[in-house]
Design a protein that fits this description.
Number of strands: 8
Radius of gyration: 16 Å
Strand order of the largest sheet: 1-2-8-5
Length: 159
Amino acid sequence: MNIMGKFKRTILNRSKEGTIVLQVLTDIEEKQIDKSEKEYGELVYVFDKKYKIGAKNIYLYGDINIDNKEDINLINKFKNIICEIYSPSNFIYSNLDYNTGIIKSDERGIYKGYYTSNYMKWFLYNYLLIGKPKKIIIYSIPQKYIKNDYRWRIRDTKI
């Protein structure tokens, strides 16, 4: 089974601020955020052309290189936002090749996994799910915006 790039966005965590999301960021979206301060008076990300996410709910956005120590240090600063250590929903497949996204089943064809409280493993797993893009955004959005939208995670952005 291959999970590389299975989704456009994925849930990292839930908090009192809302659902914490890791998402592919396009060049157009990044430019929209960069220009938003002039239009809105603060950084704003317009989510799916429907919802405005203000600066206080945008944690990280822009280029990412997981081999770069500065980028890893930045991720470390947000470890409590990325991963709730007591969450039972931080499930990661075992036998996962992080380079290819391929998961191998056991001899009976069963895909095994485990729950993790390691924020970096959790981040890398979710980063793989969105295809290891060059640009990402991590933000918080109220659960009500995504609760009834079954297409929310799907890679195809057509609605």
